[in-house]
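Morning. Coffee machine broken again, so started the prediction first thing and wrote up yesterday's gels while waiting. Chain of 222 residues, entered below exactly as on the submission form.
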Amino acid sequence: MDELIDLCWPDAVPEKAVQSFHVTMHSLRRMLEPELHPHRESTFIRRSGSNFYRLETGGLWWTDTGEVEDVFDKGRACDLRQDKRRACFYYSRVTAYGIRRFLEGEQACDHWLVPYRKRYEGLHSQALVRLIHLHRSCREWDEAVEYARQLLQLDQYNQLAAAAVVEGALAAGRCDFARQWLAGFVASFERDVGAAPNGELLALRTRMLGDPPPVSPMPERP
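Came back before lunch.
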């Protein structure tokens, strides 16, 4: 009980906090089990001793955060079986899930939400990465570029996403756009990250600029 009071009413005086706790527990019991008679033990809210409470879900509760994890796990299972279509279906559901708005709403600063938000953000990013890989492997550039742009909103220097944007533009015949976009990305990456981008992006830049490949020096005659 004390932990719940500290979590839900940290600034209330002790007497008021205890009163609020019992009122809330009563309301929660009525909400979960409207037909529950007074002084009868709840199926979901169990009390041991005088101050210890626990919630028993019995597998009957659904949560949006749990749904996201379940959908991601289904996508990963299909991915491991190389069932690309079904994997993309489940991964796309993760990226489209509306839980992000809840986790970033008015309660975003509540510390009890932090692990859920971090877990969702990690699953969301992983799903986007796999969607980009899978659609690139199928040469489905419109889809790959769409998910790449979503990933760049979360990680503006993600090089996988950058490569997908450039490849998609090249596949659509937008060579000038691809060249200009990549030049801007590389310049920003080198300026802000303080390092050169990976070999894939450098190879794309070389290909678009038409730079000749490096020539190995001729061995000297003996």
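The first strand starts at residue 45 and ends at 48. Going to sketch it on the whiteboard this afternoon.
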